[in-house]
Design brief:
single chain; about 230 residues; Lipocalin; eleven-stranded mixed β-barrel; 2 helices; disordered N terminus; DUF2490 domain-containing protein; signal
């Protein structure tokens, strides 16, 4: 009887926790990415993301990011950038709640290679995070590594997969892991759309997210040259 009671308490505790943090909800991320060439060696990265605990409702996070890319060659480049992030850390709404605000500096290095028909991209990231929680401030550092694989199906359709791990450089080392799979469509030479699924693992929580992403990479070199 005690064992049954203990099991019921455990199940009840897990269910209450999942309801509080939205772990049992299918959320959504809506994303835009852009790379704008301004010279043979330089381009500008732009990015905006809206993340929700549920499908396009119950706000979780706004992420705005930009950076300057330096292209070493066709298969290697670096990025130095800045991100502005507003996060609502609770699934349920509270009238006196204060959202956290983060100013983030980041450095990235990209490498690309091809094996048969598979296009691989390795992304290495360092982040310096300046966090404002309302009643306190904090500075955190972390590193990230993402392995992405893209498989063209036709000239129009492609599959995209990646796994990215986040390592904290203070406290507990493991931050999170993101596993992603998507179907993509090349609308034009510089415009593509992806619809996919993300499994986001934290130490004590696991989230399922649908993702809709638009990538638009216009080449601005001709426009700047005319000006």
């Amino acid at each position: 009887m005690k064992k049954i009671l203990g099991l019921l308490i455990l199940i009840s505790t897990f269910t209450m926790k999942a309801q509080e943090n939205g772990e049992n909800k299918l959320g959504s991320w809506h994303m835009y990415f852009g790379t704008n060439k301004i010279s043979n060696k330089l381009s500008i990265h732009t990015e905006a993301q809206l993340r929700y605990y549920e499908q396009a409702k119950n706000f979780n996070q706004l992420l705005l990011r930009t950076g300057l890319n330096y292209h070493i060659d066709a298969n290697a480049w670096t990025t130095f950038g800045y991100g502005y992030i507003v996060t609502d850390g609770s699934f349920e709404e509270f009238p006196d709640e204060t959202n956290s605000i983060e100013h983030r500096i980041f450095e990235r290095f990209f490498l690309k290679n091809k094996v048969w028909e598979f296009n691989f991209e390795h992304r290495y990231t360092l982040e310096q995070r300046f966090l404002d929680f309302g009643d306190r401030n904090d500075v955190q550092h972390r590193m990230r590594y993402r392995l992405q694989m893209t498989l063209p199906l036709t000239n129009t359709f492609f599959l995209n997969f990646y796994d990215e791990i986040f390592i904290n450089l203070q406290d507990d080392a493991f931050g999170q892991n993101r596993l992603y799979a998507a179907l993509g469509i090349n609308v034009t030479n510089n415009l593509s759309v992806q619809a996919g699924y993300l499994k986001n693992h934290f130490s004590e929580a696991h989230y399922d997210r649908l993702q809709i992403g638009v990538t638009y990479n216009p080449d601005l070199r001709g426009v700047l040259k005319k000006k």
